[in-house]
Amino acid sequence: MSNDILIFAEHQAGRVTRPTWEAVAAGQSLAADLGTTVSAVILGSKVEALASELAAADLTEVVSVDSPLLADYTPDGYTLALRDLIVQRQPRFVVFSHTYLVRDFVPKLGAALDRNFIGDCLSYRREGGRLIFVRQLFQGKFSADVEFAGDAPYLVSFQAASFREDSVRRGATPAKVTAFAATLSPENIRQKPGERFREAKQAVDLTQAEIIVAVGRGIKKPENLDLARKLAEALGGELGASRPICDSGWLPMDRQIGSSGQTVAPKLYVALGVSGAIQHQVGMKGSRTVVAINKDKEAPIFEVATYGIVGDLFELVPPLIEEIKKVRAG
Amino acid sequence: MKIIVCLKQVPARDAILRLNPAGTWVQETDISFEVNEPDIYALEEALRLKEKHGGEVVVATLGPARAQQAIKEALAKGADRALHLDDPAFLSLDASGVARALSRAIQKENPDLIVTGLQSDDFGFAQTGVILAEILGLPHSTIIMEIQVTDKTMKVKRELEAGFFQWIEMPLPALLTVQSGINKPRYATLKGIMAAKNKPIQRLSAADLGLQAQDLAPRQKIAKVYVPVKKAHTEYLEGGAKDVAAKLVDKLKNEARVL
Description:
- The complex is a heterodimer.
- By secondary structure, chain A is of the alpha/beta class.
- Chain A has helices at residues 18-34, 48-54, 75-89, 100-113, 225-235, 243-247, 278-284, 313-329, and strands at 5-9, 11-12, 15-16, 38-44, 61-66, 93-97, 117-127, 130-137, 142-148, 154-158, 176-179, 192-198, 211-215, 238-241, 268-272, 289-294, 307-310.
- Chain A has 2 domains: 5-188, Rossmann fold (3-Layer(aba) Sandwich); 206-329, Rossmann fold.
- In chain A, helix 3 (75-89) crosses helix 4.
- The longest helix of chain A has 17 residues, at 18-34.
- Chain A is elongated.
- Chain B is α/β, with parallel strands linked by helices.
- Chain B folds into 2 domains: 2-216, 3-Layer(aba) Sandwich (Rossmann fold); 228-259, no CATH class.
- Chain B is built from 7 helices and 13 strands.
- Chain B has a 9-stranded mixed β-sheet, with helices on both faces. In chain B, strands 2-3 form a two-stranded antiparallel ribbon.
- In chain B, helix 2 (68-77) packs across helix 5 (190-196) and helix 3 (95-107) packs across helix 4 (128-136).
- Chain B starts with a strand and ends in a 5-residue tail after the last helix.
- The chains are: A alpha/beta, B alpha/beta.
- At the A-B interface, helix 3, helix 4, strand 7, strand 8 and strand 9 of A face helix 3, helix 4, strand 7, strand 9 and strand 12 of B.
- Strand 17 (307-310) of chain A pairs parallel with strand 13 of chain B.
């Protein structure tokens, strides 16, 4: 397998997850560009069905690492199992989707292999013989071209939606599934994970809202939330927020939009003083029309805005409420 | 218990950032710096654990002389002492270099717990803590929202995607990266600021830590930093507040048809 691409597959509740298919698309794209073959690996307990689901993609091989010790994800278990496989097969690239699970163990895997991990990439490109990965700095204010130094295997993860699930190439026939026996023992797995759970039932379901007014740090003080609330009322929409606002306790956590909160897709999304860090964008990119009001013209939110207004939200929102009321009344 | 907090200083959130002439990083002259926000939560968590269980909070910071300001803030809030890793060889390290340097300083301390913020606001690698755990041979967990310590084990609440959580048990010593919002960080008191003046800050160079050039060699290189190419066709509306408001409402009604 040396010089090959290996894709890491995740699963949840008996299904291969959407980020995994995005990683498959990324891996297939890299393999096509580098003229190499591409395989995938799936870890877990009793994963035959998952392995065959994955084998529908155009892959040389699906490697399944099946062990009762991998029934629940732990960073120790996943690192040990994958390290064994990577040491044996020496792929050139191991491709991940940048999920919470990947963030949790891949830096450890890199250190265990004494190899490097470039995480959270948006894209890659070839320049001559060089392979350049693009990732964000300063919460999206800048982009950086990053290259691996040192030896393969290279570990790389791509941000959600960097590659499209529907661009995965299906195989004419299912890929062969090979079992790999990793050396795992219970005493080497130090984390004991419990069940996944959600906090008390969410009071607001922003996923169903047609119009959302979201506030970010630019709102400055909890007292100013009233202004945003009035705008939401005038529009007949719901109030949402970026993470820092909920972290500060200015709005309850169930109003949070982003990777750790709700993913919304309203027909109108008004972002007031939201800088639009990637964690926020992931939660609202699907909105049909996005209005961004921010005094910082470099704010990343403008990249996903339909209409952008660079200015002071405290000056802009009051006349905006008046105009909306006029239109609604007429 | 002895707790180490890894704390980094980063350009301030509201700093106007400009690229350096080489286009490889931002210009660090004439901007203000502050403590990396997630690390403020990590420090607060450590101080609360100390208040509950007794012990010591030690700050570990890698950075140039200006990072003293971040260290002093942490000491003023209640950390007991600090390790300041400062050496020209430490400039522009990647996550594995930083983790390697920190590991040498922390190893000697033999802590019960290491806490870090989940990522930095500048590079945003979200890797240093996890690599550090691996180098030190410690169990770890990331994106933590609650920590309950009982004797030699602890239970932590890990944040998952889409509003899910999970409790995880693991033995001490261990390393945790904490999520912003885990607590309400305190402000330094005047008394704290005065007390901080007498708290020890130990400066450690690469030589002090027995670090050679190859230990710190970069594994990834930033070739170029630039302002992101805007993909979407954002239509910017300009003019006075009243004008812009009217224009926007007209667009929302007649163009986007969402009103």
